[in-house]
Specification:
Strand content: 5-15%
CATH architecture: 3-Layer(aba) Sandwich
Order of helices and strands: EHHEHHEHHEHEHH
Shape: globular
Largest sheet: 5 strands, parallel
CATH class: Alpha Beta
Structural class: alpha/beta
Length: 172
Protein backbone atom coordinates (compact mmCIF):
# COMPACT_ATOMS: atom_id res chain seq x y z
CA UNK A 1 0.00 0.00 0.00
CA UNK A 2 1.18 3.53 -0.68
CA UNK A 3 1.73 6.38 1.70
CA UNK A 4 -1.00 7.95 3.78
CA UNK A 5 -1.36 11.05 1.62
CA UNK A 6 -4.83 12.00 0.36
CA UNK A 7 -5.28 13.48 -3.13
CA UNK A 8 -8.50 15.49 -3.10
CA UNK A 9 -10.86 16.21 -5.95
CA UNK A 10 -12.48 19.62 -6.22
CA UNK A 11 -15.83 18.54 -4.76
CA UNK A 12 -14.35 17.40 -1.43
CA UNK A 13 -12.28 20.57 -1.02
CA UNK A 14 -15.18 22.84 -1.97
CA UNK A 15 -17.38 21.17 0.66
CA UNK A 16 -14.96 22.41 3.32
CA UNK A 17 -14.30 25.77 1.63
CA UNK A 18 -18.03 26.54 1.53
CA UNK A 19 -18.33 26.26 5.30
CA UNK A 20 -14.93 27.92 5.88
CA UNK A 21 -13.56 24.86 7.70
CA UNK A 22 -10.29 24.10 5.97
CA UNK A 23 -8.92 23.70 9.49
CA UNK A 24 -10.62 20.29 9.39
CA UNK A 25 -8.55 19.30 6.35
CA UNK A 26 -5.45 20.23 8.37
CA UNK A 27 -6.78 18.26 11.37
CA UNK A 28 -7.26 15.13 9.28
CA UNK A 29 -4.69 12.50 10.29
CA UNK A 30 -3.26 12.23 6.75
CA UNK A 31 -1.99 15.22 4.74
CA UNK A 32 -4.07 16.44 1.80
CA UNK A 33 -2.73 17.50 -1.59
CA UNK A 34 -4.57 18.93 -4.56
CA UNK A 35 -3.47 19.11 -8.17
CA UNK A 36 -3.10 22.31 -10.13
CA UNK A 37 -6.20 21.25 -12.11
CA UNK A 38 -8.27 21.09 -8.91
CA UNK A 39 -6.92 24.52 -7.91
CA UNK A 40 -8.06 25.91 -11.27
CA UNK A 41 -11.55 24.49 -10.77
CA UNK A 42 -11.73 26.10 -7.33
CA UNK A 43 -10.66 29.41 -8.87
CA UNK A 44 -13.42 29.04 -11.46
CA UNK A 45 -16.07 28.66 -8.76
CA UNK A 46 -16.36 31.58 -6.35
CA UNK A 47 -13.90 34.32 -5.37
CA UNK A 48 -14.47 33.78 -1.63
CA UNK A 49 -13.65 30.09 -2.03
CA UNK A 50 -10.48 31.01 -3.92
CA UNK A 51 -9.45 33.32 -1.05
CA UNK A 52 -10.14 30.59 1.51
CA UNK A 53 -8.23 28.08 -0.60
CA UNK A 54 -5.23 30.42 -0.86
CA UNK A 55 -5.32 31.00 2.90
CA UNK A 56 -5.42 27.22 3.47
CA UNK A 57 -2.34 26.82 1.26
CA UNK A 58 -0.59 29.69 3.06
CA UNK A 59 -1.32 28.12 6.45
CA UNK A 60 -0.15 24.67 5.37
CA UNK A 61 -3.58 23.03 5.66
CA UNK A 62 -2.86 21.28 2.36
CA UNK A 63 -0.41 21.51 -0.52
CA UNK A 64 -0.78 21.92 -4.25
CA UNK A 65 1.16 19.83 -6.77
CA UNK A 66 1.61 19.92 -10.51
CA UNK A 67 0.75 16.95 -12.68
CA UNK A 68 3.82 16.66 -14.89
CA UNK A 69 4.90 13.03 -14.65
CA UNK A 70 4.52 11.41 -18.10
CA UNK A 71 2.67 8.37 -16.73
CA UNK A 72 0.26 10.61 -14.78
CA UNK A 73 -0.31 12.75 -17.84
CA UNK A 74 -1.01 9.66 -19.96
CA UNK A 75 -3.62 8.48 -17.44
CA UNK A 76 -5.06 12.01 -17.21
CA UNK A 77 -5.52 12.08 -21.00
CA UNK A 78 -6.92 8.54 -21.16
CA UNK A 79 -9.49 9.42 -18.46
CA UNK A 80 -10.55 12.35 -20.64
CA UNK A 81 -11.80 10.07 -23.41
CA UNK A 82 -15.56 10.43 -23.58
CA UNK A 83 -15.54 13.80 -21.90
CA UNK A 84 -17.39 12.64 -18.80
CA UNK A 85 -14.83 13.56 -16.16
CA UNK A 86 -13.57 17.04 -15.38
CA UNK A 87 -9.89 17.95 -15.31
CA UNK A 88 -9.84 18.02 -11.51
CA UNK A 89 -11.29 14.52 -11.24
CA UNK A 90 -8.96 13.16 -13.90
CA UNK A 91 -5.85 14.69 -12.38
CA UNK A 92 -6.73 13.58 -8.83
CA UNK A 93 -7.36 10.01 -10.03
CA UNK A 94 -4.11 9.94 -12.04
CA UNK A 95 -1.98 11.26 -9.18
CA UNK A 96 -3.57 8.95 -6.58
CA UNK A 97 -3.09 5.91 -8.83
CA UNK A 98 0.49 6.60 -9.84
CA UNK A 99 1.75 7.80 -6.46
CA UNK A 100 -0.10 5.19 -4.40
CA UNK A 101 -2.10 7.78 -2.46
CA UNK A 102 -5.68 7.74 -1.23
CA UNK A 103 -8.29 9.50 -3.37
CA UNK A 104 -10.88 11.85 -1.81
CA UNK A 105 -13.77 12.18 -4.26
CA UNK A 106 -17.57 12.24 -4.09
CA UNK A 107 -18.83 11.84 -7.65
CA UNK A 108 -20.13 8.28 -8.12
CA UNK A 109 -19.37 8.15 -11.85
CA UNK A 110 -15.80 9.37 -11.25
CA UNK A 111 -15.36 6.84 -8.45
CA UNK A 112 -16.51 4.05 -10.76
CA UNK A 113 -14.04 5.19 -13.42
CA UNK A 114 -11.21 5.44 -10.86
CA UNK A 115 -11.89 1.89 -9.66
CA UNK A 116 -11.89 0.63 -13.27
CA UNK A 117 -8.58 2.38 -13.92
CA UNK A 118 -7.07 0.96 -10.71
CA UNK A 119 -8.17 -2.56 -11.67
CA UNK A 120 -6.67 -2.23 -15.15
CA UNK A 121 -3.41 -0.90 -13.69
CA UNK A 122 -3.37 -3.51 -10.95
CA UNK A 123 -2.96 -0.77 -8.36
CA UNK A 124 -5.01 -0.80 -5.18
CA UNK A 125 -6.87 2.47 -4.69
CA UNK A 126 -8.37 3.64 -1.42
CA UNK A 127 -11.29 5.99 -2.00
CA UNK A 128 -12.73 8.25 0.67
CA UNK A 129 -15.74 10.52 0.38
CA UNK A 130 -16.49 13.73 2.26
CA UNK A 131 -18.51 11.78 4.82
CA UNK A 132 -15.53 9.45 5.41
CA UNK A 133 -13.35 12.49 6.13
CA UNK A 134 -15.84 13.63 8.78
CA UNK A 135 -16.08 10.14 10.31
CA UNK A 136 -12.30 9.92 10.64
CA UNK A 137 -12.21 13.42 12.18
CA UNK A 138 -14.78 12.28 14.76
CA UNK A 139 -12.80 9.13 15.51
CA UNK A 140 -9.57 11.11 15.87
CA UNK A 141 -11.23 13.55 18.29
CA UNK A 142 -10.83 16.58 16.00
CA UNK A 143 -14.60 17.19 16.14
CA UNK A 144 -17.44 15.69 18.12
CA UNK A 145 -20.63 14.12 16.86
CA UNK A 146 -22.73 17.22 17.54
CA UNK A 147 -20.33 19.40 15.50
CA UNK A 148 -20.27 16.84 12.68
CA UNK A 149 -24.06 16.72 12.49
CA UNK A 150 -24.13 20.53 12.50
CA UNK A 151 -21.77 20.57 9.51
CA UNK A 152 -23.95 17.97 7.75
CA UNK A 153 -27.01 20.20 8.25
CA UNK A 154 -25.14 23.33 7.10
CA UNK A 155 -24.15 21.53 3.90
CA UNK A 156 -27.72 20.33 3.34
CA UNK A 157 -29.47 23.62 4.10
CA UNK A 158 -27.03 26.12 2.64
CA UNK A 159 -24.78 24.40 0.12
CA UNK A 160 -26.82 21.80 -1.76
CA UNK A 161 -24.68 18.95 -0.46
CA UNK A 162 -26.89 16.38 1.26
CA UNK A 163 -25.54 13.21 2.79
CA UNK A 164 -27.85 10.19 2.80
CA UNK A 165 -27.59 9.68 6.54
CA UNK A 166 -29.72 10.89 9.43
CA UNK A 167 -26.70 11.48 11.64
CA UNK A 168 -23.03 10.56 11.69
CA UNK A 169 -23.93 8.06 14.40
CA UNK A 170 -25.21 5.96 11.47
CA UNK A 171 -21.62 5.64 10.24
CA UNK A 172 -19.84 5.12 13.55
Amino acid sequence: MGSAIVVADTSVIINFLRIDRMDLIKAYPDPFIVTDHVATEIADSYPDQQLRYQAALDHGHLSQQTVDDPAELETFLRLGAGGRLGAGERSAIAVALHRGHKLAIDDTRAIRRAVEEANVAGNPLTIIRTQDVIVRLIKSGAIDLHQADGIKEDWRQNHRFALKIRSFTDLL
